[in-house]
Amino acid sequence: MKKLLIIGGSGFVGANLAAMAKTDWQVTVTSHTASVITIDSVQVVSMDITDRQQVFDVIENIRPDAVIHTAAISSLDACIEDRDRADRINTVATADIAAAAKSVGVKMVFTSTDLVYAGNRSFYAETDDAKPSCYYGQTKLAAEQAIVDSGVDYAIARLALVYGRKLGPQNSGVEALLANLAAGKSFAQFSTEYRTPVYVEDLCAVLVEMASNPALSGIYNVGSPQRVSRYEFAQILARTFGYPEELIKPGQVIAANFKDHRPEDCSMNTDKLKTALGRSLSDITEGLIKIKRNRHAI
Ligand SMILES: NC(=O)c1ccc[n+]([C@@H]2O[C@H](COP(=O)([O-])OP(=O)(O)OC[C@H]3O[C@@H](n4cnc5c(N)ncnc54)[C@H](OP(=O)(O)O)[C@@H]3O)[C@@H](O)[C@H]2O)c1
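# NAP complex -> structure
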């Protein structure tokens, strides 16, 4: 079996990725401060990605056939509150991982974000200018550039908002919404923030394919073909799970409640990925039905 190193295995995406990839790969995941859910045959190593020596040691010891790097600080507020930390974790550490992957001659797959786009129009394509309007987006765009500059063989996935079941201690937006709906609680969701949310299992399948398929290299938008506001997403969720849609109210972003700018429309055009894969990813209803089918696992 080929070896896959997943950096950030204690995270939401990393844990789902490990659970999927273990069928075809010998998987090692890294954790930092959080514990990692036990997954049969998946090995866990501890690593702080801001320690360059540790990054090189882990990659040189494991000698994986591919590295998928998912570790980051992804809270907008946390990034702008401590810019140095965000730079170190999101940008500098990514440059170090790229250098280490290059030194052992393996492909690196990186989870970037739709927030590299300015967020003031719909359906950005990869060829559109990336001009992040929040600090988190700036750190991820700088990380992308560091990967390109490193000369490593790479695939960069610009992820839309990811939804799905959580497999560990992380937060999952969908599960929080479902808990409110199940309790009959009324709540608001932003009706002015548009995204093309991607189902976590679709995303993980794409990341694994990027790790092994040389044709899937370069930069790809990874999202569903469907553009929705957070409010519309929650309405589809309620419908799919049989809860009253009226519990969800349209909400407005009040800038004063946030430390950084929240981009309004970062919806992405995913034609490039669709052509490369020969398929579209699930639309929102399809993705939520898959979660409902696996509900016992949530
Ligand atoms: N989830 C989304 O909707 C979304 C959307 C767009 C892009 N993305 C990108 O997708 C990736 C995965 O997101 P996620 O939702 O899975 O994030 P997450 O659940 O917050 O997980 C973040 C991971 O980063 C690790 N990490 C943070 N600082 C570290 C450090 N100094 N050393 C080593 N590991 C460190 C964490 O480890 P510990 O917990 O063990 O400290 C955790 O495993 C991120 O790169 C994010 O930018 C996510």
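# post-check
The pocket of NAP is lined by residues 8, 10-14, 31-34, 47-50, 70-72, 74, 89, 111, 113, 159, 161-162, 170 (CB under 6 Å).
The chain has two domains: 2-162+197-222, 172-195+226-297.
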